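ok so i was messing around last nite and threw this chain in just to see what happens. nothing serious, just curious
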Amino acid sequence: VRNTWGHCNVNDWTEVFFSDCFSKLKTLVRSLGLTTPGLEKMALDQLFDWETKGNYLNMYVQANYKPSEKLKFVGGLRLQKAGDGLNHWASSYGLPNDYNAADLPLEATDLQVIPRVAVIYSINQKNIVKLLYGKAVRDPSYFESNDKFLYPDMKPLEPEIINTFELNYIAAISPKFTLNFSVYRNLLENL
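result:
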Protein backbone atom coordinates (compact mmCIF):
# COMPACT_ATOMS: atom_id res chain seq x y z
CA VAL A 1 0.00 0.00 0.00
CA ARG A 2 1.49 3.32 -1.05
CA ASN A 3 1.43 6.18 1.48
CA THR A 4 -0.45 8.92 -0.37
CA TRP A 5 0.80 11.59 2.07
CA GLY A 6 4.46 10.63 1.68
CA HIS A 7 4.21 9.89 -2.05
CA CYS A 8 1.47 12.16 -3.22
CA ASN A 9 0.37 12.68 -6.79
CA VAL A 10 0.61 16.46 -7.18
CA ASN A 11 -2.18 16.34 -9.77
CA ASP A 12 -4.57 15.32 -6.96
CA TRP A 13 -3.89 18.56 -5.06
CA THR A 14 -6.31 20.85 -6.84
CA GLU A 15 -7.44 24.07 -5.21
CA VAL A 16 -10.76 22.43 -4.31
CA PHE A 17 -9.04 19.37 -2.73
CA PHE A 18 -6.61 21.63 -0.82
CA SER A 19 -9.49 23.76 0.55
CA ASP A 20 -11.47 20.64 1.44
CA CYS A 21 -8.52 19.29 3.48
CA PHE A 22 -8.31 22.52 5.49
CA SER A 23 -12.08 22.50 5.94
CA LYS A 24 -11.85 18.99 7.44
CA LEU A 25 -9.03 20.10 9.75
CA LYS A 26 -11.12 23.04 10.96
CA THR A 27 -14.07 20.69 11.60
CA LEU A 28 -11.76 18.42 13.59
CA VAL A 29 -10.53 21.32 15.76
CA ARG A 30 -14.11 22.46 16.44
CA SER A 31 -15.16 18.90 17.37
CA LEU A 32 -12.41 18.59 20.01
CA GLY A 33 -14.35 20.74 22.47
CA LEU A 34 -11.30 22.70 23.60
CA THR A 35 -12.14 24.35 26.92
CA THR A 36 -9.10 26.59 27.44
CA PRO A 37 -10.23 30.16 26.63
CA GLY A 38 -9.06 31.24 23.20
CA LEU A 39 -7.35 27.91 22.34
CA GLU A 40 -9.85 26.91 19.63
CA LYS A 41 -9.68 30.38 18.04
CA MET A 42 -5.88 30.31 18.14
CA ALA A 43 -5.78 26.86 16.48
CA LEU A 44 -8.28 27.94 13.80
CA ASP A 45 -6.32 31.17 13.20
CA GLN A 46 -3.13 29.10 12.78
CA LEU A 47 -4.84 26.80 10.28
CA PHE A 48 -5.97 29.88 8.36
CA ASP A 49 -2.38 31.18 8.29
CA TRP A 50 -1.07 27.81 7.09
CA GLU A 51 -3.77 27.67 4.42
CA THR A 52 -3.22 31.21 3.14
CA LYS A 53 0.49 31.84 3.79
CA GLY A 54 2.01 28.38 3.87
CA ASN A 55 5.08 27.49 5.87
CA TYR A 56 7.41 25.41 3.75
CA LEU A 57 8.73 24.98 0.27
CA ASN A 58 10.08 21.51 -0.44
CA MET A 59 10.98 20.30 -3.88
CA TYR A 60 13.00 17.31 -5.10
CA VAL A 61 14.29 16.42 -8.54
CA GLN A 62 16.32 13.40 -9.62
CA ALA A 63 18.11 12.56 -12.85
CA ASN A 64 19.60 9.26 -14.00
CA TYR A 65 22.28 8.86 -16.66
CA LYS A 66 23.44 5.47 -17.90
CA PRO A 67 26.36 5.85 -20.34
CA SER A 68 26.82 2.06 -20.54
CA GLU A 69 25.24 -1.16 -19.32
CA LYS A 70 27.69 -1.28 -16.40
CA LEU A 71 27.80 2.36 -15.31
CA LYS A 72 25.00 4.53 -13.96
CA PHE A 73 25.00 8.04 -12.45
CA VAL A 74 22.16 9.29 -10.27
CA GLY A 75 21.87 12.88 -9.07
CA GLY A 76 19.22 14.36 -6.86
CA LEU A 77 18.59 17.86 -5.59
CA ARG A 78 16.21 18.94 -2.86
CA LEU A 79 15.30 22.58 -2.30
CA GLN A 80 13.97 23.40 1.16
CA LYS A 81 12.84 26.67 2.71
CA ALA A 82 10.89 27.23 5.92
CA GLY A 83 8.41 30.08 6.09
CA ASP A 84 7.97 32.56 8.92
CA GLY A 85 4.45 31.51 9.92
CA LEU A 86 5.77 30.16 13.23
CA ASN A 87 6.63 33.67 14.44
CA HIS A 88 2.96 34.60 14.25
CA TRP A 89 2.02 31.39 16.06
CA ALA A 90 4.48 32.06 18.91
CA SER A 91 3.36 35.67 19.31
CA SER A 92 -0.26 34.51 19.54
CA TYR A 93 0.64 32.81 22.84
CA GLY A 94 1.08 36.30 24.34
CA LEU A 95 4.74 36.95 25.09
CA PRO A 96 5.48 39.37 27.95
CA ASN A 97 5.61 43.03 26.89
CA ASP A 98 9.34 43.27 27.63
CA TYR A 99 10.15 40.14 25.59
CA ASN A 100 11.87 40.81 22.28
CA ALA A 101 9.99 38.64 19.79
CA ALA A 102 12.76 39.27 17.26
CA ASP A 103 14.96 36.97 19.41
CA LEU A 104 12.81 33.98 18.49
CA PRO A 105 14.71 31.64 16.15
CA LEU A 106 11.59 31.10 14.05
CA GLU A 107 12.13 33.39 11.08
CA ALA A 108 12.04 32.15 7.53
CA THR A 109 15.14 30.15 6.67
CA ASP A 110 17.34 30.69 3.65
CA LEU A 111 16.78 28.42 0.70
CA GLN A 112 18.76 25.25 1.37
CA VAL A 113 20.16 23.20 -1.51
CA ILE A 114 20.52 19.56 -0.50
CA PRO A 115 22.31 17.30 -3.01
CA ARG A 116 22.50 13.50 -3.41
CA VAL A 117 24.82 11.76 -5.84
CA ALA A 118 25.45 8.10 -6.67
CA VAL A 119 27.82 6.32 -9.02
CA ILE A 120 26.79 2.70 -9.56
CA TYR A 121 29.06 0.22 -11.30
CA SER A 122 27.91 -3.31 -12.17
CA ILE A 123 30.98 -5.52 -12.25
CA ASN A 124 28.75 -8.32 -13.57
CA GLN A 125 25.19 -9.59 -13.02
CA LYS A 126 25.93 -10.57 -9.40
CA ASN A 127 28.36 -7.87 -8.17
CA ILE A 128 27.69 -4.14 -7.83
CA VAL A 129 29.75 -1.30 -6.35
CA LYS A 130 28.15 2.00 -5.33
CA LEU A 131 29.76 5.28 -4.35
CA LEU A 132 27.24 7.55 -2.64
CA TYR A 133 27.06 11.07 -1.22
CA GLY A 134 24.08 12.57 0.52
CA LYS A 135 23.24 15.57 2.65
CA ALA A 136 20.32 16.05 5.04
CA VAL A 137 19.16 19.17 6.89
CA ARG A 138 16.81 19.29 9.86
CA ASP A 139 15.53 22.65 11.06
CA PRO A 140 14.67 23.03 14.76
CA SER A 141 11.02 22.32 15.47
CA TYR A 142 8.74 24.93 16.98
CA PHE A 143 8.87 23.20 20.36
CA GLU A 144 12.68 22.91 20.34
CA SER A 145 12.90 26.60 19.48
CA ASN A 146 10.30 27.34 22.13
CA ASP A 147 12.93 26.63 24.83
CA LYS A 148 13.75 30.32 24.29
CA PHE A 149 10.78 31.06 26.55
CA LEU A 150 12.28 29.04 29.40
CA TYR A 151 15.91 29.96 28.70
CA PRO A 152 15.99 33.55 27.39
CA ASP A 153 19.81 33.57 27.18
CA MET A 154 19.93 30.49 24.96
CA LYS A 155 21.49 31.09 21.55
CA PRO A 156 19.17 30.54 18.57
CA LEU A 157 19.21 26.96 17.34
CA GLU A 158 20.80 26.24 13.99
CA PRO A 159 19.70 23.54 11.54
CA GLU A 160 21.28 20.12 12.09
CA ILE A 161 23.26 19.00 9.04
CA ILE A 162 24.68 15.61 8.08
CA ASN A 163 26.93 14.89 5.10
CA THR A 164 27.27 11.17 4.36
CA PHE A 165 29.85 9.44 2.18
CA GLU A 166 29.42 5.73 1.49
CA LEU A 167 31.11 2.96 -0.46
CA ASN A 168 28.83 -0.05 -0.90
CA TYR A 169 29.46 -3.53 -2.32
CA ILE A 170 26.55 -5.85 -3.14
CA ALA A 171 26.99 -9.50 -4.09
CA ALA A 172 24.17 -11.84 -5.07
CA ILE A 173 25.60 -15.08 -3.70
CA SER A 174 22.52 -17.12 -4.60
CA PRO A 175 18.88 -16.41 -5.46
CA LYS A 176 18.08 -16.44 -1.71
CA PHE A 177 21.23 -14.85 -0.26
CA THR A 178 22.68 -11.38 -0.84
CA LEU A 179 25.76 -9.89 0.81
CA ASN A 180 25.88 -6.14 1.33
CA PHE A 181 29.02 -4.48 2.72
CA SER A 182 29.20 -0.75 3.42
CA VAL A 183 31.88 1.63 4.62
CA TYR A 184 30.62 5.12 5.43
CA ARG A 185 31.59 8.39 7.04
CA ASN A 186 29.09 10.86 8.51
CA LEU A 187 30.02 14.49 9.12
CA LEU A 188 27.62 16.11 11.60
CA GLU A 189 27.05 19.79 12.32
CA ASN A 190 25.03 21.59 15.02
CA LEU A 191 24.01 18.54 17.06
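not much to say yet. The two ends are 35 Å apart (CA to CA).
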